[in-house]
């Protein structure tokens, strides 16, 4: 039986998200990128309303759509906005990549992106560790703890952890002996974002410690920002990094800007006062034993 028509106005299609977003963002940058200072809000309807409240500006609706018309819009990934009581909210929040019906909503994709970023950081310890059962157990435990926290916050479907997510990492599960010999670590996780026990699978691959493979050299990039120059430096896994500067390459001492950080594969932004005159910067890399 056809549903009752709802008052609605057609709104343009939402983009899936920014292209080339930085791996590490602070709360202000996340607000600018995604319209929310938190990684995600669950259930999805709450996130959609927050997104629309910040990005939209509708004051009233102008059309009446029946369920067939709503389905026709959904087929081309267009989200109408509807009047619900005294509020005007989006009816769904689909992105343009609709080829996978299980992953057509911005909250789903956004949650997957957030999980990917944080699990990648968890796996950064692999670069300084031997590829053995102790490493695999630590990766499983740390990833399970992170996913359990998301489960408690309501990110996944299901009433139990086994219905909500799983994590695998080990020989015979995610790796062959050839992978272990090649110093390659593989982890697989599944998360139930739409229905309990129906998992979206995500796989990760990292390089474990290999004495014959040299460390990746750090990089520095200087850019013009709204408040002057901004300096970014990479932190490849397997080492610690200390950002230092000097007024002259011939100077006997270099000033340290912050305490050394452990490399996790992300870029860090240096914080410093405005620079007057010439100044040189370097990132000192110390391999983790």
Overall description:
Helix 4 (106-123) packs antiparallel against helix 5. Mean pLDDT is 75; it is low at 1-31 and 33-39. The protein folds into three domains: 6-98, no CATH class; 124-207, Dihydrodipicolinate Reductase, domain 2 (2-Layer Sandwich), CATH 3.30.360; 220-287. The chain has seven helices and 14 strands. It has helices at residues 27-34, 44-55, 67-75, 106-123, 133-152, 161-164, 177-181; strands spanning 6-10, 63-65, 80-84, 87-90, 165-168, 184-195, 198-207, 220-225, 228-234, 239-246, 255-256, 261-262, 267-270, 280-287. The chain is of the alpha+beta class. Strand 10 (239-246) and strand 11 form a beta hairpin. A four-stranded antiparallel sheet has the order 2-1-3-4.
Quickly describe the structure.
This protein has 289 residues and is an alpha+beta fold.
Tell me the layout of helices and strands:
Blueprint: E1 6-10, H1 27-34, H2 44-55, E2 63-65, H3 67-75, E3 80-84, E4 87-90, H4 106-123, H5 133-152, H6 161-164, E5 165-168, H7 177-181, E6 184-195, E7 198-207, E8 220-225, E9 228-234, E10 239-246, E11 255-256, E12 261-262, E13 267-270, E14 280-287
Antiparallel strand pairs: 1-2, 1-3, 3-4, 5-6, 6-7, 8-9, 9-13, 10-11, 10-12, 10-14
Classification by helices and strands: alpha+beta
Mean pLDDT: 75
The level of helicity is 25-40%
What is the CA-atom radius of gyration, in angstroms? 24 Å
Summarize the main sheet. Answer: 4 strands, antiparallel
- Assign an overall shape: flat
Report the count of strand segments: 14
First-to-last CA distance? 68 Å
